[in-house]
Amino acid sequence: MADVAPFRAIRYARPTPEVTAPPYDVLTPEARDDFRARDPHNVVHLTLNDSEDEAGRQFRAWLGEGILVRDDEPAVWALSQDYVGPDGVARRREGLVASLGVEPYETGVVLPHERTHAGPKESRLRLLRAAQAQLEPIFLLYDGEPPVAVPDREPDVATEGTRLWRVPGEGVAEAFADRQLLIADGHHRYETGVAYAAEVGTPESARMMVVLVSTSDPGLEIFPTHRLFRGHEEALPPVSVGDSASPLAAVTRLAGLPYDRAHAVGYRKGATFPVVGEPGELDVELVDRLVGHEGLGYTADLDEAVLRVDSGEFDGAFLLRATRIDDVFERARRGEVMPQKTTYFFPKLTSGLLFHPV
């Protein structure tokens, strides 16, 4: 049973775009420095501090100074994000911010779909110990209709396309009691939360802040992440036998092919190649079989993928279509993990709107 509940959020007393940022794991060092310079209380001073202990001290100091305040009553938050995707289409994605009781994957309540690495989890665990708060939400998917609708009133918090409404949360726990939850973004932080709960052993330590989005939400979209590789001469034929179709034309044709087997577009400088996999194989699994997953480059931008091959930075690329949400859920329910960056959910969640004490 998924344990979803309201929580007493900590938040900025005066939220502005200057104190928010994207999640820690999508920021380059240059972007981090830019957000740091925007405001001395920008959330990256917590999420990407050079010292996790210093981040914890700052978090508590901001609470003591009134920069951050804690709500008197528990609540859940209706969330709306307006965005323009990499495909140029404007959409609106809606979800629910709530507190989730974390538990090991073995229980089958929360399902992963990608591999994780030790380094990021060690850093996030040090930060969680120091701050004693979940500083960023993770992104989960579920099947079924949302139990909470976006209210028809002005939002309580709004910044750069993201809006939040504080709502009481009656019926939320019951609505999620029999649902499985799939991690869309945040595998490392979820596993860190499980480790922290086992380490501390209190009911409060076993909870984390999540954004729950229904798989039926019309604004939910998975975008493809193209793979770039070096070497692997055997993965694609020589350029002399390539297709005359441009990368854009080849990818457009790719989108119309059936999903009963894997398909991809191979690209070497000046030539495209149709690549066909096995029945039941996903496109990302096809690439993983051909070139592995070590030393790859990734980009969601088709033009960038082509440019980085044409410039000689990479020897070739596999241009992909998006992985379907149903296929991700199916693999996860079978206990299978998929290659890194199988899914690309856009937009990323905004950090700095709410914090969850543990």
Features:
358 residues, alpha+beta, 5-stranded antiparallel sheet, 26% strand
What layout of secondary structure does this protein have?
Blueprint: E1 4-5, E2 10-12, H1 29-38, H2 44-47, H3 52-65, E3 68-70, E4 76-84, E5 90-101, E6 110-111, H4 118-131, E7 133-134, E8 138-142, E9 157-159, E10 162-167, H5 172-176, E11 181-185, H6 187-200, E12 207-214, E13 222-223, E14 226-229, H7 247-255, E15 261-268, E16 271-279, H8 283-291, E17 297-299, H9 302-310, E18 316-319, H10 325-333, E19 344-345, E20 356-357
Parallel strand pairs: 6-11, 8-12
Antiparallel strand pairs: 1-5, 2-3, 4-5, 4-10, 5-12, 7-20, 8-11, 9-10, 13-19, 14-17, 14-18, 15-16, 15-18
Characterise the protein shown here.
There is one protein chain. With 358 residues, this protein is an alpha+beta fold. The protein has two domains: 4-221 and 345-357, Conserved hypothetical protein from pyrococcus furiosus pfu- 392566-001, ParB domain, CATH 3.90.1530; 225-321, no CATH class. It is built from ten helices and 20 strands. The strands form five sheets. Strands 1, 4, 5, 6, 8, 9, 10, 11 and 12 form a nine-stranded mixed sheet that branches. Strands 16-15-18-14-17 form a five-stranded antiparallel sheet. It has a two-stranded antiparallel sheet with strand order 2-3. Strand 15 (261-268) and strand 16 (271-279) form a beta hairpin. Helix 3 (52-65) packs parallel to helix 4. The longest helix has 14 residues, at 52-65. The radius of gyration is 21 Å and the shape is globular. It starts with a strand and ends with a strand. The mean pLDDT is 93.
